[in-house]
Amino acid sequence: MNEKCLAAVEINQDLCSRCYVCKSICPYQAIKTDATEKVEINLEDCQVCGICYSACPSSAIKIQYYTYDNLINYLTHAQTKTPKAETLVMMCRGNSPNTGEVKKILQEQGLQTDNYLSLRLPCAGRVPTDFIFKALEQGVKNIISIQCEDSFCRYKEGTKINTRRFTLAKNVLNQLGYDKNTLKVIKFSRKAVYNVLDCVGCDKCIFICPYDALEFESFATPKVNHTKCMGCGACQLVCPHHAIQVEGFEFENILKRYSHTAEAIKAKSNGPTVLAFICQWSEFSALDNPLQTFEGKNILAIEVPCFKSLDPVHVINALNCGFDGVIGIVCPSKDCKLQEGKDTAERNLNVIFDVLKKKNLLDRFVLYGENPKCSGSFEQTLNAFYKKISNIISKEKTEVKE
Fold first, then answer.
1. Which of 88, 174, 201, 279 could hold 330 in an S-S bridge, CB 3.0 to 4.6 Å?
2. Each residue of 37-47: pLDDT tens digit?
Protein backbone atom coordinates (compact mmCIF):
# COMPACT_ATOMS: atom_id res chain seq x y z
CA MET A 1 0.00 0.00 0.00
CA ASN A 2 1.17 3.57 -0.51
CA GLU A 3 2.69 5.54 2.35
CA LYS A 4 -0.31 7.87 2.53
CA CYS A 5 -2.71 4.99 3.25
CA LEU A 6 -4.56 5.44 6.52
CA ALA A 7 -5.37 1.84 7.42
CA ALA A 8 -9.06 1.08 7.90
CA VAL A 9 -8.17 -1.73 10.31
CA GLU A 10 -5.36 -1.84 12.84
CA ILE A 11 -4.36 -3.37 16.17
CA ASN A 12 -3.96 -1.42 19.41
CA GLN A 13 -0.88 -3.09 20.85
CA ASP A 14 -1.62 -1.75 24.34
CA LEU A 15 -4.90 -3.68 24.44
CA CYS A 16 -3.77 -6.80 22.59
CA SER A 17 -3.51 -9.81 24.92
CA ARG A 18 -1.61 -11.99 22.41
CA CYS A 19 -4.38 -14.59 22.43
CA TYR A 20 -4.05 -14.97 18.64
CA VAL A 21 -7.76 -15.53 18.11
CA CYS A 22 -7.66 -13.00 15.27
CA LYS A 23 -4.77 -14.82 13.62
CA SER A 24 -6.51 -18.18 13.78
CA ILE A 25 -9.80 -16.87 12.42
CA CYS A 26 -8.60 -14.60 9.57
CA PRO A 27 -9.68 -16.23 6.26
CA TYR A 28 -6.89 -14.45 4.35
CA GLN A 29 -3.93 -15.18 6.67
CA ALA A 30 -3.45 -11.43 6.84
CA ILE A 31 -2.60 -11.38 10.55
CA LYS A 32 0.99 -12.26 11.43
CA THR A 33 3.23 -12.38 14.49
CA ASP A 34 6.81 -11.18 14.56
CA ALA A 35 9.79 -12.49 16.55
CA THR A 36 8.52 -10.77 19.69
CA GLU A 37 5.05 -12.34 19.24
CA LYS A 38 3.61 -8.93 18.40
CA VAL A 39 0.42 -9.25 16.35
CA GLU A 40 0.29 -7.21 13.15
CA ILE A 41 -2.03 -6.90 10.15
CA ASN A 42 -0.61 -7.19 6.65
CA LEU A 43 -2.76 -4.65 4.85
CA GLU A 44 -1.78 -6.05 1.44
CA ASP A 45 -3.57 -9.32 2.24
CA CYS A 46 -6.34 -7.87 4.43
CA GLN A 47 -9.80 -7.63 2.84
CA VAL A 48 -11.40 -5.61 5.69
CA CYS A 49 -13.99 -8.33 6.21
CA GLY A 50 -14.18 -7.42 9.92
CA ILE A 51 -14.14 -11.02 11.13
CA CYS A 52 -11.07 -10.40 13.30
CA TYR A 53 -12.68 -7.30 14.81
CA SER A 54 -15.82 -9.17 15.78
CA ALA A 55 -13.80 -12.00 17.35
CA CYS A 56 -11.26 -10.01 19.39
CA PRO A 57 -12.01 -10.62 23.12
CA SER A 58 -10.04 -7.57 24.29
CA SER A 59 -11.37 -5.03 21.73
CA ALA A 60 -7.82 -4.44 20.55
CA ILE A 61 -8.71 -4.25 16.87
CA LYS A 62 -9.86 -0.90 15.60
CA ILE A 63 -11.85 -0.86 12.36
CA GLN A 64 -13.28 1.94 10.27
CA TYR A 65 -16.57 0.35 9.20
CA TYR A 66 -19.53 -1.19 11.03
CA THR A 67 -18.11 -1.03 14.55
CA TYR A 68 -20.15 -2.24 17.50
CA ASP A 69 -21.04 1.34 18.43
CA ASN A 70 -22.02 2.16 14.84
CA LEU A 71 -24.27 -0.90 14.66
CA ILE A 72 -25.97 0.02 17.95
CA ASN A 73 -26.47 3.63 16.84
CA TYR A 74 -27.94 2.43 13.54
CA LEU A 75 -30.31 0.08 15.35
CA THR A 76 -31.42 2.79 17.77
CA HIS A 77 -32.11 5.20 14.92
CA ALA A 78 -34.00 2.53 12.96
CA GLN A 79 -36.16 1.75 15.98
CA THR A 80 -37.21 5.39 16.31
CA LYS A 81 -38.29 5.40 12.65
CA THR A 82 -40.12 2.06 12.89
CA PRO A 83 -41.07 1.74 16.56
CA LYS A 84 -43.43 -1.22 16.07
CA ALA A 85 -40.84 -3.41 14.34
CA GLU A 86 -39.72 -6.29 16.54
CA THR A 87 -37.70 -8.24 13.96
CA LEU A 88 -34.15 -7.37 12.92
CA VAL A 89 -33.08 -8.75 9.53
CA MET A 90 -29.32 -8.75 8.94
CA MET A 91 -28.27 -9.19 5.32
CA CYS A 92 -24.92 -10.03 3.74
CA ARG A 93 -23.85 -7.58 1.05
CA GLY A 94 -23.49 -10.52 -1.34
CA ASN A 95 -27.21 -11.25 -1.26
CA SER A 96 -28.61 -8.00 0.20
CA PRO A 97 -32.07 -8.58 -1.22
CA ASN A 98 -34.40 -5.66 -1.76
CA THR A 99 -37.50 -5.18 0.38
CA GLY A 100 -39.73 -7.33 -1.79
CA GLU A 101 -37.21 -10.15 -1.83
CA VAL A 102 -36.80 -10.05 1.96
CA LYS A 103 -40.52 -10.59 2.46
CA LYS A 104 -40.51 -13.40 -0.11
CA ILE A 105 -37.56 -15.13 1.55
CA LEU A 106 -39.15 -14.84 4.98
CA GLN A 107 -42.43 -16.22 3.69
CA GLU A 108 -40.63 -19.19 2.17
CA GLN A 109 -39.30 -19.90 5.65
CA GLY A 110 -42.79 -19.69 7.12
CA LEU A 111 -42.16 -16.27 8.65
CA GLN A 112 -44.75 -13.52 8.29
CA THR A 113 -43.67 -9.98 9.14
CA ASP A 114 -44.44 -6.64 7.50
CA ASN A 115 -42.55 -4.50 9.99
CA TYR A 116 -38.88 -5.25 10.36
CA LEU A 117 -35.57 -3.46 10.70
CA SER A 118 -32.96 -4.19 8.05
CA LEU A 119 -29.22 -4.06 8.54
CA ARG A 120 -26.92 -4.51 5.54
CA LEU A 121 -23.37 -5.72 6.13
CA PRO A 122 -20.38 -6.70 3.97
CA CYS A 123 -20.34 -10.07 5.72
CA ALA A 124 -22.39 -11.80 8.40
CA GLY A 125 -19.16 -12.90 10.06
CA ARG A 126 -18.29 -9.38 11.18
CA VAL A 127 -21.26 -9.14 13.59
CA PRO A 128 -20.02 -9.33 17.22
CA THR A 129 -22.01 -11.66 19.46
CA ASP A 130 -22.39 -8.77 21.91
CA PHE A 131 -24.46 -6.92 19.32
CA ILE A 132 -26.97 -9.76 19.19
CA PHE A 133 -27.55 -9.60 22.95
CA LYS A 134 -27.67 -5.79 22.92
CA ALA A 135 -30.28 -5.79 20.15
CA LEU A 136 -32.50 -8.09 22.22
CA GLU A 137 -31.99 -5.86 25.23
CA GLN A 138 -33.18 -2.88 23.16
CA GLY A 139 -36.51 -4.49 22.39
CA VAL A 140 -35.85 -6.63 19.33
CA LYS A 141 -37.77 -9.91 19.66
CA ASN A 142 -36.36 -11.85 16.70
CA ILE A 143 -33.10 -11.65 14.78
CA ILE A 144 -32.80 -13.20 11.32
CA SER A 145 -29.50 -13.46 9.49
CA ILE A 146 -29.96 -13.80 5.71
CA GLN A 147 -26.48 -14.83 4.76
CA CYS A 148 -24.77 -16.30 1.74
CA GLU A 149 -24.59 -20.03 1.37
CA ASP A 150 -21.35 -21.25 2.95
CA SER A 151 -19.58 -22.12 -0.29
CA PHE A 152 -20.55 -18.77 -1.85
CA CYS A 153 -19.35 -16.46 0.93
CA ARG A 154 -17.26 -13.69 -0.64
CA TYR A 155 -15.11 -13.68 2.50
CA LYS A 156 -14.58 -17.46 2.53
CA GLU A 157 -15.47 -18.25 6.16
CA GLY A 158 -17.81 -15.42 7.11
CA THR A 159 -21.13 -17.25 6.99
CA LYS A 160 -19.75 -20.32 8.72
CA ILE A 161 -18.41 -18.18 11.54
CA ASN A 162 -21.70 -16.32 11.93
CA THR A 163 -23.66 -19.58 11.98
CA ARG A 164 -21.46 -20.91 14.78
CA ARG A 165 -21.92 -17.69 16.75
CA PHE A 166 -25.67 -17.86 16.33
CA THR A 167 -25.63 -21.46 17.56
CA LEU A 168 -23.67 -20.52 20.69
CA ALA A 169 -25.87 -17.46 21.28
CA LYS A 170 -29.02 -19.59 20.93
CA ASN A 171 -27.74 -21.99 23.58
CA VAL A 172 -27.19 -19.11 25.98
CA LEU A 173 -30.57 -17.55 25.22
CA ASN A 174 -32.37 -20.87 25.67
CA GLN A 175 -30.88 -21.14 29.13
CA LEU A 176 -32.16 -17.63 29.85
CA GLY A 177 -35.69 -18.59 28.80
CA TYR A 178 -35.82 -17.08 25.29
CA ASP A 179 -37.83 -18.78 22.57
CA LYS A 180 -35.82 -21.19 20.42
CA ASN A 181 -36.73 -19.19 17.29
CA THR A 182 -35.38 -15.90 18.62
CA LEU A 183 -32.35 -16.30 16.38
CA LYS A 184 -32.61 -17.75 12.89
CA VAL A 185 -30.16 -18.22 10.03
CA ILE A 186 -31.36 -18.27 6.41
CA LYS A 187 -29.00 -19.18 3.59
CA PHE A 188 -29.54 -17.27 0.35
CA SER A 189 -27.30 -16.52 -2.63
CA ARG A 190 -28.10 -14.66 -5.84
CA LYS A 191 -28.09 -16.83 -8.92
CA ALA A 192 -28.55 -16.41 -12.64
CA VAL A 193 -32.11 -17.08 -13.79
CA TYR A 194 -33.57 -17.73 -17.24
CA ASN A 195 -36.61 -16.36 -19.00
CA VAL A 196 -37.24 -19.46 -21.07
CA LEU A 197 -39.49 -17.67 -23.55
CA ASP A 198 -36.73 -15.22 -24.49
CA CYS A 199 -33.95 -17.79 -24.83
CA VAL A 200 -33.03 -18.63 -28.45
CA GLY A 201 -30.59 -21.40 -27.57
CA CYS A 202 -27.43 -19.71 -28.82
CA ASP A 203 -25.49 -21.10 -25.81
CA LYS A 204 -23.20 -18.05 -25.60
CA CYS A 205 -23.80 -18.01 -21.86
CA ILE A 206 -22.35 -21.53 -21.52
CA PHE A 207 -19.07 -20.57 -23.14
CA ILE A 208 -18.65 -17.32 -21.18
CA CYS A 209 -19.47 -18.63 -17.69
CA PRO A 210 -16.19 -18.64 -15.71
CA TYR A 211 -17.55 -21.11 -13.16
CA ASP A 212 -18.94 -23.78 -15.53
CA ALA A 213 -22.33 -23.26 -13.91
CA LEU A 214 -24.36 -23.49 -17.13
CA GLU A 215 -25.02 -26.87 -18.66
CA PHE A 216 -26.03 -27.65 -22.24
CA GLU A 217 -29.51 -29.05 -22.80
CA SER A 218 -30.51 -30.52 -26.17
CA PHE A 219 -33.22 -28.44 -27.83
CA ALA A 220 -33.83 -26.54 -24.60
CA THR A 221 -32.68 -23.62 -22.49
CA PRO A 222 -29.34 -24.31 -20.78
CA LYS A 223 -29.58 -25.48 -17.19
CA VAL A 224 -28.22 -23.37 -14.30
CA ASN A 225 -26.22 -25.46 -11.85
CA HIS A 226 -26.99 -23.60 -8.64
CA THR A 227 -24.21 -25.38 -6.78
CA LYS A 228 -21.69 -23.63 -9.03
CA CYS A 229 -23.32 -20.32 -10.00
CA MET A 230 -21.64 -17.41 -8.21
CA GLY A 231 -23.99 -14.73 -9.51
CA CYS A 232 -21.15 -12.78 -11.15
CA GLY A 233 -23.34 -11.71 -14.09
CA ALA A 234 -20.93 -12.56 -16.91
CA CYS A 235 -23.60 -14.64 -18.65
CA GLN A 236 -26.13 -11.84 -18.93
CA LEU A 237 -23.62 -9.66 -20.76
CA VAL A 238 -23.39 -11.98 -23.74
CA CYS A 239 -27.07 -12.88 -23.98
CA PRO A 240 -28.49 -11.02 -27.03
CA HIS A 241 -32.04 -11.18 -25.68
CA HIS A 242 -31.45 -10.70 -21.94
CA ALA A 243 -32.88 -14.16 -21.42
CA ILE A 244 -30.50 -14.90 -18.53
CA GLN A 245 -29.82 -12.36 -15.81
CA VAL A 246 -28.83 -12.08 -12.16
CA GLU A 247 -31.77 -11.38 -9.88
CA GLY A 248 -31.77 -7.78 -8.73
CA PHE A 249 -29.32 -6.63 -11.40
CA GLU A 250 -31.43 -7.15 -14.51
CA PHE A 251 -30.58 -4.96 -17.51
CA GLU A 252 -33.95 -3.21 -17.59
CA ASN A 253 -33.87 -2.75 -13.82
CA ILE A 254 -30.52 -0.94 -14.00
CA LEU A 255 -31.64 1.05 -17.05
CA LYS A 256 -34.72 2.39 -15.26
CA ARG A 257 -32.63 3.60 -12.35
CA TYR A 258 -30.60 6.07 -14.38
CA SER A 259 -32.29 6.66 -17.77
CA HIS A 260 -34.19 9.80 -16.71
CA THR A 261 -32.24 10.70 -13.59
CA ALA A 262 -29.74 13.06 -15.22
CA GLU A 263 -32.50 15.34 -16.52
CA ALA A 264 -34.18 15.44 -13.11
CA ILE A 265 -30.91 16.29 -11.38
CA LYS A 266 -30.03 19.04 -13.84
CA ALA A 267 -33.46 20.59 -13.36
CA LYS A 268 -32.61 21.11 -9.69
CA SER A 269 -28.89 21.88 -9.84
CA ASN A 270 -26.38 23.49 -12.19
CA GLY A 271 -23.50 21.22 -11.23
CA PRO A 272 -22.26 18.31 -13.36
CA THR A 273 -24.05 14.98 -13.11
CA VAL A 274 -22.03 11.81 -12.61
CA LEU A 275 -23.12 8.19 -12.67
CA ALA A 276 -21.02 5.85 -10.53
CA PHE A 277 -21.04 2.09 -11.07
CA ILE A 278 -19.61 0.64 -7.86
CA CYS A 279 -18.66 -2.97 -7.22
CA GLN A 280 -20.22 -4.28 -4.00
CA TRP A 281 -16.83 -5.02 -2.47
CA SER A 282 -14.77 -2.02 -3.56
CA GLU A 283 -16.54 0.52 -1.34
CA PHE A 284 -18.80 0.42 1.71
CA SER A 285 -20.00 3.85 2.84
CA ALA A 286 -21.12 5.12 -0.58
CA LEU A 287 -23.41 2.16 -1.12
CA ASP A 288 -24.89 2.07 2.37
CA ASN A 289 -25.15 5.82 2.96
CA PRO A 290 -24.99 7.57 -0.44
CA LEU A 291 -26.71 10.79 0.69
CA GLN A 292 -23.94 11.51 3.17
CA THR A 293 -21.08 10.37 0.92
CA PHE A 294 -22.25 12.36 -2.10
CA GLU A 295 -23.50 15.41 -0.21
CA GLY A 296 -23.13 18.52 -2.35
CA LYS A 297 -22.52 16.54 -5.53
CA ASN A 298 -24.87 15.37 -8.28
CA ILE A 299 -23.87 11.72 -8.18
CA LEU A 300 -26.03 8.65 -8.64
CA ALA A 301 -24.49 5.37 -7.41
CA ILE A 302 -25.51 2.04 -8.92
CA GLU A 303 -24.24 -1.13 -7.32
CA VAL A 304 -22.96 -4.06 -9.38
CA PRO A 305 -22.06 -7.53 -8.06
CA CYS A 306 -18.80 -7.56 -10.01
CA PHE A 307 -17.11 -5.63 -12.81
CA LYS A 308 -17.76 -8.66 -15.04
CA SER A 309 -21.46 -7.77 -14.93
CA LEU A 310 -21.00 -4.13 -15.94
CA ASP A 311 -22.53 -3.99 -19.40
CA PRO A 312 -20.62 -1.51 -21.64
CA VAL A 313 -24.00 -0.42 -23.01
CA HIS A 314 -24.83 1.23 -19.69
CA VAL A 315 -21.74 3.43 -19.79
CA ILE A 316 -22.46 4.66 -23.32
CA ASN A 317 -26.18 4.99 -22.70
CA ALA A 318 -25.68 6.95 -19.47
CA LEU A 319 -23.70 9.61 -21.36
CA ASN A 320 -26.37 9.68 -24.06
CA CYS A 321 -29.02 10.12 -21.35
CA GLY A 322 -27.42 13.33 -20.12
CA PHE A 323 -24.82 12.32 -17.53
CA ASP A 324 -21.71 14.43 -17.85
CA GLY A 325 -19.41 11.66 -16.66
CA VAL A 326 -19.38 7.99 -15.69
CA ILE A 327 -17.01 6.44 -13.19
CA GLY A 328 -16.50 2.76 -12.46
CA ILE A 329 -15.22 1.78 -9.03
CA VAL A 330 -14.06 -1.83 -9.01
CA CYS A 331 -11.86 -4.03 -6.87
CA PRO A 332 -8.17 -4.18 -7.80
CA SER A 333 -7.39 -7.42 -9.59
CA LYS A 334 -5.69 -8.94 -6.55
CA ASP A 335 -8.65 -8.23 -4.29
CA CYS A 336 -11.45 -9.37 -6.62
CA LYS A 337 -13.90 -11.63 -4.74
CA LEU A 338 -14.75 -13.44 -7.99
CA GLN A 339 -11.33 -14.15 -9.45
CA GLU A 340 -12.46 -16.30 -12.37
CA GLY A 341 -13.38 -14.62 -15.63
CA LYS A 342 -11.04 -11.63 -15.51
CA ASP A 343 -10.66 -11.80 -19.28
CA THR A 344 -14.39 -11.06 -19.61
CA ALA A 345 -14.02 -7.85 -17.62
CA GLU A 346 -10.98 -6.82 -19.67
CA ARG A 347 -12.84 -7.33 -22.95
CA ASN A 348 -15.76 -5.27 -21.67
CA LEU A 349 -13.40 -2.46 -20.74
CA ASN A 350 -11.77 -2.50 -24.18
CA VAL A 351 -15.22 -2.26 -25.80
CA ILE A 352 -16.10 0.75 -23.63
CA PHE A 353 -12.88 2.58 -24.48
CA ASP A 354 -13.15 1.85 -28.21
CA VAL A 355 -16.70 3.20 -28.46
CA LEU A 356 -15.97 6.26 -26.30
CA LYS A 357 -12.93 7.09 -28.39
CA LYS A 358 -15.00 7.00 -31.58
CA LYS A 359 -17.61 9.27 -29.97
CA ASN A 360 -14.93 11.63 -28.64
CA LEU A 361 -16.09 10.95 -25.08
CA LEU A 362 -13.01 9.20 -23.75
CA ASP A 363 -12.42 11.85 -21.09
CA ARG A 364 -15.94 11.33 -19.67
CA PHE A 365 -15.29 7.84 -18.31
CA VAL A 366 -12.72 6.44 -15.94
CA LEU A 367 -12.24 3.14 -14.15
CA TYR A 368 -10.58 3.03 -10.75
CA GLY A 369 -9.43 0.07 -8.71
CA GLU A 370 -10.41 0.78 -5.11
CA ASN A 371 -10.83 -1.18 -1.89
CA PRO A 372 -11.89 -0.26 1.66
CA LYS A 373 -8.38 -0.77 3.09
CA CYS A 374 -7.40 2.87 3.02
CA SER A 375 -9.71 5.25 4.82
CA GLY A 376 -10.71 8.22 2.65
CA SER A 377 -9.21 6.80 -0.56
CA PHE A 378 -12.59 6.44 -2.26
CA GLU A 379 -13.58 10.03 -1.44
CA GLN A 380 -10.32 11.33 -2.91
CA THR A 381 -10.80 9.34 -6.09
CA LEU A 382 -14.38 10.49 -6.49
CA ASN A 383 -13.58 14.13 -5.76
CA ALA A 384 -10.78 14.14 -8.33
CA PHE A 385 -13.05 12.76 -11.06
CA TYR A 386 -15.90 15.10 -10.14
CA LYS A 387 -13.53 18.06 -10.34
CA LYS A 388 -12.29 16.83 -13.72
CA ILE A 389 -15.83 16.65 -15.11
CA SER A 390 -16.63 20.08 -13.65
CA ASN A 391 -13.64 21.55 -15.48
CA ILE A 392 -14.70 19.91 -18.75
CA ILE A 393 -18.22 21.32 -18.44
CA SER A 394 -16.90 24.79 -17.57
CA LYS A 395 -14.56 24.74 -20.54
CA GLU A 396 -17.35 23.70 -22.90
CA LYS A 397 -19.60 26.52 -21.64
CA THR A 398 -16.80 29.03 -22.15
CA GLU A 399 -16.19 27.83 -25.70
CA VAL A 400 -19.91 28.10 -26.50
CA LYS A 401 -20.00 31.70 -25.28
CA GLU A 402 -16.98 32.58 -27.38
1. 279
2. 899 999 999 99
